[in-house]
């Protein structure tokens, strides 16, 4: 039977990795909040001209822009939506289901590797949603530019 001896400094590296992934998750939440505010402001502006008599091209491109911004908003809301699954054994939702003795038992081993894995998967999922939302927001801005061009004709 072989035993694994941790390499020197692995604890420090794992602590740094946990902190880095947690920071990345925080960054996605902050960026998503800013984009939600931006998209909301654009949607509010569009709502103010919704009852205007506009050319057909403007209405078509404007409607497409509103729908695209709506899809972006949904993705952004998914980014900031709390994840409260208690099945990964490395998070507070799981610990909230346990009594004090079970929590102590969970803390016997080193959960950092599992925590890094779970948090990294969460961060990747958030960044994918964020990237798609940015792409949709940019598409909506292009559609709005076409709507404005249609109004100018």
Automatic annotation (TrEMBL):
Keywords: Antiviral defense, Cell membrane, Membrane, Nucleotide-binding, Transmembrane, Transmembrane helix
GO annotation, cellular component aspect: plasma membrane
Membrane-crossing residue ranges in chain numbering: 33-50, 56-80, 133-152
GO BP, sorted A to Z: defense response to virus
Start and end residues of each Pycsar effector protein domain: 15-149
Annotated Pfam families: PycTM (PF18967)
Single annotated GO MF: nucleotide binding
Keyword ATP-binding: no
Protein name (Swiss-Prot/TrEMBL): Integral membrane plasmid transfer protein
Provenance organism: Streptomyces xinghaiensis
């Amino acid at each position: 039977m072989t035993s694994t001896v941790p390499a020197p400094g692995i604890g420090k590296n794992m602590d740094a990795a946990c902190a880095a992934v947690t920071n990345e998750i925080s960054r996605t939440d902050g960026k998503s909040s800013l984009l939600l505010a931006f998209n909301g402001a654009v949607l509010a502006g569009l709502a103010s001209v919704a009852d205007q008599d506009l050319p057909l091209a403007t209405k078509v491109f404007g409607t497409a822009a509103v729908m695209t911004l709506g899809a972006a908003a949904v993705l952004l809301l998914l980014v900031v939506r709390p994840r409260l699954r208690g099945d990964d054994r490395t998070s507070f939702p799981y610990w909230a289901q346990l009594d004090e003795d079970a929590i102590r038992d969970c803390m016997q081993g080193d959960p950092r590797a599992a925590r890094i894995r779970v948090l990294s998967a969460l961060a990747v999922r958030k960044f994918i949603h964020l990237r798609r939302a940015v792409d949709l927001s940019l598409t909506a801005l292009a559609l709005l530019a076409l709507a404005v061009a249609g109004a100018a004709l």
